[in-house]
Amino acid sequence: IYPGVAGRSLMGTYLEQANWNLENAVAAWRAGRAALIGRPPPPPPSPRPAALRAASGWAAAPGQESSGTQASKAETAMSAKGEKRGEVLIPFNDNFEQERRDAALALRLHLEERTGERGVMSPAEAVLLLHQHNWDLTQASTSFTTLQHARTGLARTYDQMRIPVQREIAPVAQQISAMQQNERLAELVNLTGRNDWYSLRVALQKRNWNLVATVSRWYTHGILPVEAPAAVAPYGGVRMDVNLRPLPLPSRESTMSTAREQGWAAEPEAFEVLSGEQGSSSSSDSEVGPSLLKQKRKRPHGFMVNSTRTTAKKGMRNDQKFLIEYISRGRYWFNRFERQETFRWPDVNFSEQAHGHYPNPDTSKLVDFDWNNQQHLHWLNNWRRQNIQRATGLQTREQAQRWLPEELDFLYALSEELLQEQLRSNPNKTEDQLLPLKVVMDKKVEWTRRMNDKFAGTMQAGSSEPRRNREPSALMTQRSRTRSIVERFKVRPDEAYFAKVERKEKRAKAAVEAVQKGVKRRREEEDSDK
Question: Bias category Polar residues: which stretches (predicted)?
């Protein structure tokens, strides 16, 4: 449903009505949304679009009857139940940008109704709170108890993004400035959901990269589209879709804000003031000195656009997972999952991707990507993890911790200790009868505790950093990958792992033999020359 506004309770309603079938729930959501705003609904509309009207409680589009007259008694009761809980209702709009602005207004009105205070929330505060919660109105409205509580959370991330980006000469300072620009541009693209990233970059540059001031301007006036020169940005400065086709540049009319309501507070100079200082409010885009703001925290090296680090899940189709978008070196980049030797992609324009070209594969062996095939998902998740790491400089998971000989010896000793315990507990059984050696859960936990007590936090020979704690699953996996333990205690081997090791050893042996043959050949040539 991206880039539309979401509501957790409403999404739950749709999933329940679709019997928790994700694709059916999404199709029903889209059909209901289209019917509500007066569009022809996309097929198939299941369950009925009226469920969305009843659950949302928002005014019907022109020419449509209200949710109270169209919905069934059960659906009307559902809407009443939502209103009784005090949930914020989703302001659906044909224009996604305006829908997000309307959601910010709905959040402000909800706060005023809850607290009785008027004119205390600014446009940027409402927008950034929703952005922090992925435009989920339900989650955003319940995430804070007071406005000051909400401002404290905003300050940690966004106060530093008010400070003008310095134009330094020193290389290190230049790198930091470039990272700040990349981060703020990625935030603004994600916040607005816009296709035209170059237009947003121009808007930030006009305000000396003050993200909060730019967000406030976007709410009150909008950001007009700017077509990028070809020498500056390819494809006119717009993003790509999952089929590697440029998304359209929005029209001027669609980007202009229609927000004309009163009652907003002026934008504060900072969301959170340092202790002992008093901040003032101003509606202008004035620059803010660093003395007012909290110190910068460490930032990642790259900045993703419209991407979460969650893995693709079985049976949960999400084609957006095929595309990774990010901001780097002041512009937009993309990378698309291919594996063209395996999958058939009839709609994808791979000519736009600058790498990953394969020889013409045997098309008779190509298959469609299957969201219920665990191997397909494994390939996709591996690709995403590697490419997100390259784009951001961050690991999506910690690197595997190599097992040291001392740790393997200790794991072997634990297994031997367990076998001897079982022999003493079962005097009528032979060792062969007790094998393969099984480890119950309590024993796994005990082994893990003892392993961590002995090695965690220590510096071992051949290691460059202290050992981290290991999990029980890591110990059990290593048992099946240690040949001495597999042979001694008849543990079921990890055949895929041993096959991989064997292939690696063969490649290494072949490389050594090739070098030896080359050396021998050169010596023979030298001898013949003599």
Answer: 64-73
Beta strands across the sheet bearing 323-328: 303-305, 323-328, 331-336
In the numeric block, which tokens belong to residue 392? 């951001």
pLDDT digits (tens, 9 = 90+) for 272-326: 755 444 444 433 343 444 334 444 444 446 689 987 778 899 888 899 999 999 9
| CA dist., res. 353 & res. 335, Å (int) | 7
Indicate the length of the chain as a whole number. 530
150 touches 131 (CB < 8 A): no
Percent of the chain scored above 70 by pLDDT?
Answer: 78
Yes or no: say if 121 and 265 are a contact pair by the CB < 8 Å rule: yes
Query: Any idea which residue has 């959040």 for tokens?
Result: 107
Q: What separation, in Å, do the N-terminal and C-terminal C-alpha atoms of the chain show?
A: 78
CA–chain centroid gap for 97, Å, is 21
DSSP string across 406-472 = HHHHHHHHHHHHHHHHHHHH-TTS-HHHHPSPP--HHHHHHHHHHHHHHHTT---TT-SSPPPP--H
- 240 or 62, greater pLDDT: 240
Which residues are paired to 305 by β-bridges?
325
- The model's confidence at residue 439, banded by pLDDT at 50, 70 and 90, is very high
